[in-house]
Amino acid sequence: MSEHRNESTTVEEFHPAGEEVQSDSEGGAMAQESPKNSAAEIPVTSNGQLEDSHEHSFNRDLKRSLPVGLGLSETKITSHGFDSTKEGVVEAGPFPGGRAQQKSGPVVLADEVKNPAMEKLELVRKWSLNTYKCTRQIISEKLGRGSRTVDLELEAQIDILRDNKKKYENILKLAQTLSTQLFQMVHTQRQLGDAFADLSLKSLELHEEFGYNADTQKLLAKNGETLLGAINFFIANVNTLVNKTIEDTLLTVKQYESARIEYDAYRTDLEELNLGPRDANTLPKIEQSQQLFQVHKEKYDKMRNDVSIKLKFLEENKVKVLHNQLVLFHNAIAAYFAGNQKQLEQTLKQFHIKLKTPGADAPSWLEEQ
Fold it and tell me: Residue 114: what pLDDT?
């Protein structure tokens, strides 16, 4: 009997609430011309709970009556039993800027953003590890503990090249000294010839004697300038050979030696790992060491091949250049000291050498402005 009274009381109490909801809905329809809410016609079960189908209908109607600014994805609607103090609760989540974020279409997953700082840190780590291995290999070789890969034929060619470079540099230095001294001598002879010519004009009794000496010194100065042009041409070509061609080959040799040290360092690491135990912890390290060893082996083989090719081309170029320059130097010196002016000039024509007139390098007064 008591349960029956409670149920009837609940039904009786429900009708006024339904009327209030209906009146509110009608007031909202008159103000906003929105659809009428049918919450007053929701049936109630015997235990005071709403039926599931009508509960979903109520939630759907309530969502339609919400303001446009609230997105459905950001709104949570809950309903409680009518014995509670709240008949319906609308919880709206925060939305940036007061605007609803509507998302539609397929979802695209963005690629993982690469961090430049992490990439640089990884490069520094690899460089530090490589430097450590190479330093350890160099120290081991100097102490006689580590083994090094040696190409006997290639190493012999490199040693000859370095020794020849030192000898060519010495020849170049002596030729430059000769050029400086010859320039001073030619300058002195020219001044002496001018002094003899001046005295020839002012001393009538020694006019012929001063005149002969003036002509001789001027001729020697002219021949000296011709010889100076040949020597300077010789110096320029030998300097190009020594400080550019040979130096470029030696730069490749240095890269080859660095590749050789890296190759031996990673080879030593691989040999040490292979001598140790093989288990789940060491096998990945051995595999990684094998890959690094293979990479540096390929680099070493490539650099060794490059050095062999450059040494071959350098030898051919060196023979050709030095042959022409040595012939020029010999013919010019011999013609100068023999006093054969014609042969000296012919030598310069043979090698297409153009003499610079004194003061030709000085800028004009217009250029100085």
Answer: 63
Q: How far is CA 163 from CA 156, 157, 158, 166, 186, in A?
A: 11, 10, 9, 5, 35
Nearest to 253 by CA among 297, 296, 298, 309: 309
Instruction: Identify the sign of the CA torsion 177, 179, 182, 186.
Output: negative
Task: Retrieve residue 48's tokens.
Answer: 């005071």
Which of 225, 145, 143, 215 minimizes the C-alpha distance to 183? Answer: 225
Residue 320's pLDDT band, with cuts at 50, 70 and 90, is very high
Q: Which residues pair with 50 in a beta bridge?
A: 44
State which amino acid sits at residue 241.
L
- Calpha distance 179→337 (Å, rounded): 15
Dihedral-angle region of residue 115 (phi above 0 means left; psi in -120 to 50 means alpha; beta otherwise): beta
Q: How far is CA 99 from CA 91, 317, 324, in A?
A: 16, 77, 86
Q: Which two tokens stand for residue 142?
A: 């100097």
pLDDT of residue 13: 42
With bands split at pLDDT 50, 70 and 90, how would you rate the model's confidence at 228? very high
For the residues 164-183, what does the mean pLDDT come to?
Answer: 96
